[in-house]
Design brief:
Layout: E1 11-13, H1 22-31, E2 36-43, H2 44-49, H3 52-56, E3 65-70, H4 74-86, E4 91-96, H5 101-105, H6 116-129, E5 134-142, H7 148-159, E6 165-173, H8 180-183, H9 191-200, E7 205-209, H10 215-222, E8 227-230, H11 232-236, H12 244-249, H13 258-276, H14 280-284, H15 297-305, H16 314-325
Parallel strand pairs: 1-2, 1-8, 2-3, 3-4, 4-5, 5-6, 6-7, 7-8
Helix pairs in contact: 4-6, 6-7, 15-16
Amino acid sequence: MNPKHDTRWRMSVAPMMDWTDRHCRYFHRLLTRRTLLYTEMVTTGALLHGNVPRHLDFDPAEHPVALQLGGSEPADLAASAKLGREWDYDEINLNCGCPSERVQRGSFGACLMAEPQLVADCVKAMRDAVSLPVTVKHRIGIDQGESYGFVRDFVGTVANAGCDVFLVHARNAWLKGLSPKENREVPPLRYEFVHRLKREFPHLTFAVNGGIKDDAQVREQLQAVDGVMVGREAYHHPWWLASWDSAYYGEADSGLTREAVEEQMVAYMEREAALRGTAYSSIARHMMGLYNGVAGARRWRQVWSDHSLKDRPAREVSRLARVSLAQPAEIV
């Protein structure tokens, strides 16, 4: 892989627990062909001792899609990476950024940054097991330390094991005293640390994550690093993704409309209901932001979220929601 010419990490949607499930990723893929999508974190224990299809099954339309793993045992991660290859994922990513206490109790996530050699051993084991790209998502530090040297040494050690792609949340992870939500907001953003990593390791690929909410910020970051990973902004304002292929990959404008995306999602809901008995509500919850900024958006969301309609066919609910768009409503 030549990072200078590899654009697969230029834009990506971050792995988000309870959000970026297979239904969410299918929805996002309707909006952008090129953006790399990440799964929720899946622990090695869930794969090696649980229901593998439930955790790994996905629609082929989701490609390119990366499997994010949580774990700290090299052998378990290697076995899980092999499962990811068997299920046709395009990349295996190791979570070294989640600060939750539950994850820490499993000795993985952000606390792994304190053990760079162990992370290197995990990366090597996965690289030996599969030919897929093995990447690492991490923070710039842990707790309240502000040393650039800490993250520099972490990257250098892991890179020596063969990892050449790093997805960096440009905040520290405070392992005590902050909730996961607060860990996304309280520790200050230090994009300059990620920019410095790119300057010091120009042969490696770096994508920056954290607090990026608009095209101006994306373009600014792409002047300094190889890619941008967007999290909650992509989830809450998904229509932004519809412009990414033309803005960041040089493709022609697709002419996509919100109405066409909603129609494709309804067809997907119908297929999922027929194949798996999936309730449309578990799919529709991911597309609540589709009409953000359009008159009637609030009422449209209310229709799709109306519990009294849960036994109606998804197509009928969509029809009622679309009718609501024509009614006077504030733009929200």
